[in-house]
Specification:
Keywords: Acyltransferase, Transferase. InterPro entries: Acyl_CoA_acyltransferase, Bact_Acetyltransf, GNAT_dom. This is GNAT family N-acetyltransferase. One of its GO terms (molecular function) is acyltransferase activity, transferring groups other than amino-acyl groups. This protein is an alpha+beta fold. The chain has a five-stranded mixed β-sheet, sandwiched between helices. The protein is globular, with a radius of gyration of 16 Å. It has one domain: Gcn5-related N-acetyltransferase (GNAT) (Aminopeptidase). It starts with 7 loop residues before the first strand and ends in a 15-residue tail after the last helix. The chain is 33% helix and 25% strand. 16% of the residues are buried.
Amino acid sequence: MTKGAAALRMAPVLRGERRQLFAMADEYWRQIRPTGDHFVNDPAAREKYFDAEFWDEHESRFLWWAKLDETVIGFAKTELLPDPVWERLGYIGDFYIAAEYRGRGHGREFARLLYDWFAQQGIKSVRLYVRTDNPGALAFWEKEGFETARYQMRKMLP
């Protein structure tokens, strides 16, 4: 980092910041989901999903801001999950850097801050899922050293 450059840091999302996190998560979903996707076109479904997957309190779930000085430029949802081999593993459920801040190393730095936090929790293994229709995220995580371990498939029923 050059002298005088803004410092990236991670900070916990506070309970009073729900609206700001939902707005950023909603932007993220619109970018990664196909335009005709039912989820993208259903505000009630997005609210319900957000409450269940982000906002409902779980002792193993942690929400983080990526902050450039005091400007929020992204977020991550992490979890500490039980694992039969490692006892617990780290999980990155969602990871987002706003489009105008991409390509400058902020995502890489934010990911490394998360790895450091996981290591402080005694975590030895981190997992995540990447949508097959998100080649940018796939390339990012591969550069970070993640390997494809399995394919998860689904079928939508009428």
